[in-house]
Every structure is written in structure tokens, then in C-alpha cells.
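pls ignore typos typing on phone
flavin-adenine dinucleotide + seq
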Amino acid sequence: MQEFIQKLQDLIGIAHVLTDQQAMQPFLREWRGLFAGKAQAVVFPASTQEVSSIVKLCIAYAIPLIPQGGNTGLVGGQISELSNGVVLSLKRMNRVLDVDAQNNTLTVEAGATLHAVRAAAESADRLFPLSLASEGSCTIGGNIATNAGGTAVLAYGSMRASVLGLEVILPNGEILNIMSHLRKDNAGYDLKQLFIGSEGTLGIVTKAVLTLAPRPKAWAAAWCAVASPEAALILLKQMQNNFAQELTTFELMPKIGVEMVARHIPNAKTPLQNDSAWHVFIETSSSRSAAQITLMPELEQAITAAFDKNILQDAVLAHSEAQRVHFWHIRESFSEAQKHEGGSIKHDVSVAVAHIPAFIAEASAAVCALFEGARPVPFGHMGDGNIHFNISQPVISNTSDFLAQREAVNACVHALVRRYHGSIAAEHGVGRLKRALLAQTKYASAYALMQQLKQALDPQNTMNPHAVL
Ligand SMILES: Cc1cc2nc3c(=O)[nH]c(=O)nc-3n(C[C@H](O)[C@H](O)[C@H](O)COP(=O)(O)OP(=O)(O)OC[C@H]3O[C@@H](n4cnc5c(N)ncnc54)[C@H](O)[C@@H]3O)c2cc1C
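k done
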């Protein structure tokens, strides 16, 4: 193996090959602490050519290669669990190469953070719409590899909708250049779709061409109280009818979760003093030139209409930018707040939007029957049918007793997801965490086709083995 490491060092320079176990730790552990990885090296190439050479070297020595971006993934896909594995970090390939405000495109290296891309778009008076709480660390390559979702999918779609072209290093080390700037191109198979959401198992994304949108000129936000997810569903439909694409956020939260945030997160006061069991955060945004004047009254009018029809129990509008930011602060603090409430068991699932109320009711009842006192905290992107079905341990109980029930709770929630023809991996992906579940939940023909694709592209199983499949 010394010979292999020596060759890696020759390829990209000794300073860019980590082998010290202590120094490698930040790249072997993920932030939730669910996976503690092992590897013989972490490498930091600086160019497409270097990535290609590393892949070829790994094939020659039969070394597993694990692509990594910002290491913010929530399903362990970026973690090497093999002691002979090599983690390939894209961190040094982080340049925004071009912003074309006329064509509404941005060309970028895969290791640029989402934050840097959003900032580059903004400086050209454009919007890159993907929005995640991890934007300061996660990278465009990771966003593409996971087909990331987030809070703006309702209006702009998930990452897939923002990708026009890619440069990918295939598992045999060849450079695949499909860096299209075109919005229409039906000349043959749309190969980029193979790599978007493939979680580093079919190739390493090194560059991308992304689409930009007009930058919103105005935002309006409201925090609402509703009696039930059924009422939230009616509210969603009304807001979609009123605002169409200008409805950019519709997030459902249970009162128990909002209270957890108020209890544990500094400066996160609950916007409404109300006994309603559910809260909804709505945001509209518009790039129309008149929006600065019209958007807020339009939202106010829609909220009043919903109130008059008894869909809403209470609501408050954000009357300042600080208040709007405060609403976001509460919503984005959900996961952090839950950490302070002891153990939690989490599920990132989706069902058809219309099934959300029934799914939440049935899943909550089922987990409470399984573990007395368990506290369901289902929240998330209601407009996309994506619920983070998280369960906090009972107030008085032993954390390890609760977490010991993880498998049983997962089985119960995922069985219900299957009954509703939903997905066990709505936006975070499969990674290592849900690999076994994928095999159990996909139609056999779809799963077999995935295996055939993997076999065709990566017959030696070098690229992120044991992730996804
Ligand atoms: C606080 C927080 C909030 C989050 N919110 C959301 C959310 O709202 N929606 C959402 O979808 N996700 C969310 N995530 C999850 C995570 O941020 C996303 O999955 C993100 O897209 C991962 O990007 P990354 O660069 O960190 O990738 P990594 O974690 O490094 O890797 C993720 C996967 O992509 C692969 N990969 C990484 N880079 C490449 C590349 N260049 N080529 C090929 N494969 C690659 C890895 O092998 C791995 O399988 C959140 C995470 C955190 C910590």
C-alpha cells in the first residue's frame, strides 16, 4: 500500500494526500455522529485531470473511492467504511467559473459551496434557488449527487431542475463532458440525469452548468396557526390558487416542535401565542417590478380570506425583514432543538400531498402504540409532500431504551410509507443508512435496472461501494 500512497502523492503532491488518522477524522465522521469511518487516505485534487488520474490509479490497485463534498449528507453516503478506502474531497475545486446573466447560467466547479454559488448569482442580480440550512458547507457536487431539495422546491423544483450540464469522471477514469448550456436538447438520452441523485456511485461530478432565475424583488411572509394538517392542506390549495409559482415556501410544523425551538434556541420566540396544534410558515416572493408594493397586501388579503373561511385560527405577517428572518430562524432550528430533547428517531419520507394528513395521523398513532409517551414531531415541506417524520423520546425515559426501538419504529413508519405508495428517501437520499430499505421498497424491476446500470458503468465496484445499492 505504501506504493499506492506514493503514487497518489506523485499525482497531486504530498501536501494534498492525508494519511494521518487524526488529521483525517473531520472527513471520516459526519455531523450527526451516526457513522465513524475508516480510510487509508483522504485526497484533495485540484483539477478534472487530477481526479481522472486518481480514479485510474484506484482501479489499478482495486481501491474503493468515496467522493465527498461538504460532508453534510444525512445518510452516510460520503463516509468511507473500508480501511483501504480513499476519500476524494472536492474542496479545492471550488471556483465559480462563469456567470452569464444573459443566458441565465452559472458554470462552477463541484467543490464550490452552495453559499458561494448563491452569492455569485446574487452579484449578477440573479437567483440560484436551491436553499438548504447547510448552504455554508454543502457543495454543488454534493447537491447534484443527492438531488438536494430544501425549502424552495415548491416553486423551483429540486436540484435536478437547476442542472443543464455536467462534467463527470466515470468509474473507469474517463472524462465525460456533457457541459451543455442548452435548455432544449432532445438529441439522444439525457445522460446528466443518470448522475443527478446517484450519490457518487456512478461517477464523480467535477463541474456543472446551472440555471439561474430572476432575483425576487420582494418577499412576504406569514406565520399561521391551524387546527390540523387537514386545514393546512386546504390552506395550501388556497395559497397555490392565489400565488401559483410565487408561493415559494409552505412549511408545516407541529406546536410541540415550535415549543421545543422556543425552549432551546436563543432568540427564537414563538411568533403566535395560540393553542392551535399546528403551525404553517408561508412565504411568497416575486420578481415582478410592482411586487414591492403589491405582494404584502396580496398575502394579507389571502390570509384574511382564509381566516374568514375558518381555515386559519390565527396568523401574523412579517412586517419587517428582521421578522421574516426570525420566522426562518425558527423553522431552520427544528433539528437543533430536537437534539436538546433527548434521543430522536428520524425519517425523511414523502407521500402524495393529499395523503399527508392521514399519513401523519396513522404514523403518529402507530409509533405511540409501539412506545408509550413517544413524541412525534412531524414537520417539513408540505407543499412537496415531504415530511420529516421525527419522533422524540418520551419526557421521562431512558434515551438508550428509546433508541433501542429504532428498528421497530422504522419498520412501522416505512410500512406505512409503502402502503401510501410513498418514498422512504424523499430528499436526503439512500446512502449507507437506507441501503437495505431500498432493496425492500423498490419494485423488483426498478431495483434490478439500477443494479444493471451500476454494473455497466462500474463493473469493478470502485465508486462508492456499499452506498445506495
Ligand atoms: C443542517 C442541515 C440541513 C440540511 N437540509 C437539507 C434540506 O433541506 N434538503 C436536503 O435535500 N438536504 C439537506 N441536508 C443534507 C445535505 O446538506 C445535502 O444532502 C447536500 O446536498 C450534501 O452536500 P455535500 O456537499 O455536503 O455532500 P456530501 O455530504 O459530502 O456527500 C453527499 C453524497 O454525495 C456524494 N458526492 C459528494 N460530492 C460529490 C461529487 N462531486 N460527485 C459525486 N458524488 C458526490 C457523496 O459520495 C455522498 O454520497 C441538510 C444537512 C444539514 C447538515
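The CA atoms of residues 126 and 214 lie 5 Å apart. Residues 31, 66-74, 77-78, 90, 110, 132-134, 138-139, 141-143, 145-146, 148-150, 199-200, 204-205, 427-428, 431, 464, 467 surround flavin-adenine dinucleotide (CB under 6 Å). more later
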